[in-house]
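User: Predict the structure for this protein chain, please.
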Amino acid sequence: MNFNTFNWHDSVLQDIYIDRNQPGMKDSIKLKINFPEQGLYYIIFEDVYWANLYLNFGIVAEEAILNAQIEDENNDDLNNFYKKWKGLMNEVKLNLYKIEFNSSGSTIKIIAKNINPKLIG
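Assistant: Here is the predicted structure, written as structure tokens:
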């Protein structure tokens, strides 16, 4: 399955794990998400180059997802990333994954090469 195959709406984020054991060599972010129609999955973002976790805390509620998508190549965050590296990353094909939550503007944005979904339950 790929990122766009999942029915993201009303799925629930249960856990976030950021693996920096080998910085620059193997950076990954693993989200544990319960998809009501598809089951429990780890969505593993591999070869992560940038992430922004804009999340609310201290609110007692499930973190339900409103929408998730791969942003187009003209996205400001992705363009700013390439500009920051002044041509050193131009040959690396990256995607910007954006997950929006129902709760007051919470979003996760991840720039990574790809994802690897794993069914866990």
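The chain has a mean pLDDT of 91.
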